[in-house]
What we know:
The structure is a single chain. The protein has 155 residues and is an alpha+beta fold. The chain has one domain (23-149): Peptide methionine sulfoxide reductase (Metal Binding Protein, Guanine Nucleotide Exchange Factor, Chain A, Beta Complex). Helix content is 14%, strand content 26%. A six-stranded antiparallel β-sheet has the order 3-4-8-7-6-5. It is globular and about 40 Å long. Mean pLDDT is 90; it is low at 1-14. It binds zinc ion. Zinc ion binds at residues 66, 68-69, 71, 115, 117-118, 120. Zinc ion (ZN) binds next to loops.
Amino acid sequence: MVIGRRRSVVSSESRPERRVPRVVRTEEEWRRILTPEQFRITRCKGTEPAFSGAYWDHHEPGVYCCACCGLPLFDSGTKFDSGTGWPSFFAPIAPEHIATQEDRSWWMVRTEVLCAGCDAHLGHVFPDGPPPTGLRYCINSAALRFEPASKRESQ
Ligand SMILES: [Zn+2]
């Protein structure tokens, strides 16, 4: 549990020039906005069980947005079936929409993937993905909110 360790204080200096709107909320505000499962995963770096989430076997065209702040994160065109039971993508919708940092928990060195808008924990990225990037963004369904392409076009 890392609640409170870096609550809602993000200096602009630590992040280079970005057009991503920053969303800063307190832990209590996130608790009110999110479901308990979303809160556990996105704000406490949790992981949903494999094959349990809403999107691991989801194939509609559209955009996967941050469940916390709504920032578009992944396009369905980059989603692939990794067989892991988590939604997997080979690239983010825009490089500046995600942030990464080293994660040394659980006796492993992994690269954590976060929303650049609100620092939500999304999942991890691994170097065993398909072309063209060779990356596998392994993301929790609970960190995402899907927007179907049909809905976005009609807006
Ligand atoms: Zn976000």
